[in-house]
Amino acid sequence: MGQAITQRKTNTQRLEQASKKELWDLCWVREPQQDRSARTRSKLLDAAQDIINEEGPDALTIGAIAKRAEVSAGLLYHYFQDRQTIIYAVIDRFTTEMTQTAEKGLDPSLWEGVPLLEVLEGYLRFWLKLHRRFPGVLRAVTFFGMQDSNIDAQFEATRKKAAKTVMTLIRPRFDEINHPDPNVAVTMVLEMFRLMMIRRAFGQRPGGYRTLPNQSDEAFIAEMKLMAESYLEI
After folding, report:
1. pLDDT at residue 205 above 80?
2. Is the per-residue pLDDT at 161 higher than 90?
3. In terms of CB atoms within 10 Å, which end of the chain has fewer, N or C?
4. Helix or strand or coil: residue 53?
């Protein structure tokens, strides 16, 4: 028993020391690029994604993509039929890579012995990093999703898959929760995290309407952990 407690403390200390360098500073998993054609296609999608991320969806035109990728419009049309096809391809690749990154970073073997609150913190940090790296893309997914039910359904499926992945880490830690229904309580906490991060991200965009206090990521994480700890009765 004493050995188990010691090991748990050691793992917690390891997580605290490695938090921004290893587990939470996830390396974005890229789509395989095995041949020249795949690399060219990826280059075009990178250009389109950068435009969306930096300038917004309205700036995404065939001419702008070709200029950013330093290719002819004719080459772009060789790979994609039109602007809408490119949008679908960008979002499809983004959601695929996001899922693979989450699965890699939330591998249960990396989190063995780590307390529940620290797992929740890792989940928060993953999404905050995503919002910092791809703010325009995430807003564009919401924007396009309101216009196209297929895009909305695709991203919703990706979000649910990420939540399911983190639940595989949380379920073995239900004994840390004193709420009468741990499963419902954790689901509510994860949804609260998601909605608060969305509101925060939209409030931080230029001209955005801020509904939450202007806080650093660390202060925001601390508040979210306090809320989770109180509601879950940890």
Report:
1. no
2. no
3. N
4. helix
Q: Of 96, 123, 134, 155, give the one whose Cα is nearest residue 221.
A: 123
What is the CATH classification number for the domain harbouring 92?
Answer: 1.10.357
Domain of 103, in residue numbers: 13-27+87-232
The answer to whether residue 122 sits within a structural domain is yes
d(CA 57, CA 41): 19
Q: Give tens-digit pLDDT for 101-114.
A: 877 877 888 888 88
Whole-angstrom CA distances from 200 to 13, 51, 155, 206, 213 are 30, 22, 19, 12, 9
Q: Report which of 123, 232, 124, 131 is spatially closest to residue 186, judged by C-alpha positions.
A: 232
Q: How many helices (H) and strands (E) does the chain have?
A: 10, 0
In a domain, 19, yes or no: yes
Q: What is the pLDDT of residues 44-63, one digit of tens each?
A: 999 999 999 888 888 999 99
Inter-residue contact 158 to 149 (CB < 8 Å)? no
Residue 39 lies in a domain: no
One-letter identity of residue 167: M
**Residue-level pLDDT at 19:** 45
Q: How many domains does the chain have?
A: 1
71 lies in a domain?
no
- Grouping H, G, I as helix, E, B as strand and the rest as coil, residue 232 is helix
* pLDDT at residue 91, rounded to an integer: 87
